[in-house]
Amino acid sequence: MTATNRVPDQGGAPGTAKQDLEAGRRVIESEMEALGALARALDGSFGQAVSVLAAVTGRITVTGMGKSGHIARKLASTLASTGTPAQFVHPGEASHGDLGMIAPGDAVIALSNSGGTAELSDIIAYCRRFAIPLIAMTRRRGSVLTEAANVALVLPDAPEACPMGLAPTTSTTMMLALSDAIAVALLERKGFTSQDFQVLHPGGALGRTLLRVADIMHRAPELPLCGPETVMAEAILVMTERRFGCVGVTGKNGILSGIITDGDLRRHMATGLLGMTAGEVMTSEPRTVPPQALAAEALGIMNGVRNEAPVTSLFVVEDRRPIGIVHIHDCLRAGVA
Questions:
Q1: 299 with 179, same domain?
Q2: pLDDT averaged over the chain?
Q3: I need a labelling partner for 55 at 20 to 30 A (CA). Which of 8, 37, 245, 258 fits?
Q4: Predicted TM-score (pTM) of this structure
Q5: How far is CA 119 from CA 32, 122, 136, 258, 327, in A?
């Protein structure tokens, strides 16, 4: 038989398509209402939980079973990527040795819709025995989990979006939102910056977006520099050896006063170029970039986003003194585009 690439019918029965649309909107609107109730329900317990977690000197362990476990894994990942060391421990594995992953100085966040998940019992007992702070996230006030916790974050009573009221939908959405709220409050409490974020996200598009000029620039002794009294015969040698297509001109105080590019050479070719000095040939007030600027910003400057002629290199300066140089190829090799 020969397979054919047939496009499936996108329409379906008109009545069915309309019902699907209504169901989708009903679910989203139901969960939106629940999230609104969650925001209004936040109280001092949330601040207490953040304070407990901010004081942790070790690691935060996040745990949960089933769908709550999936949310717990995401929370652990978000915490770890925003400056708070965290890990996920499966409750079942905890009862068979992984309790050893939780140590004094740590804290535990336990997620459970009912607050009575049997698999969490060993982790709860372990936290009580070794005085490890326990944060509960559940929908059941007065449950085993909330009674054992140092701080209980109780979700508002809202029906599941499932028409049978059984499949975890609204409850997991609220847990996810509350998890994100904890992570963001913690990173703000700790003063976590975009530079810190880049350190923890060196790969992928996000890492490239946050890449700084200081991460990719060339430093001394690679810098092509000369003084204003340097004769052009020597300045051209420096320019050729360093291979950046330019040479920076600095005064006795080390301040970058100008730059000589291929274009400057061409403009002075018929005027006894080799006998002139760098100060006579240079273009004053060259475009520069600070080391803390994003690499994408440097690339934009080189591409002429400020309605200027494109260039291939920028000197990196601090207090007007060159500390590095970045070439357009450095940005492209780093994946900045």
A1: no
A2: 90
A3: 37
A4: 0.67
A5: 31, 7, 14, 70, 57
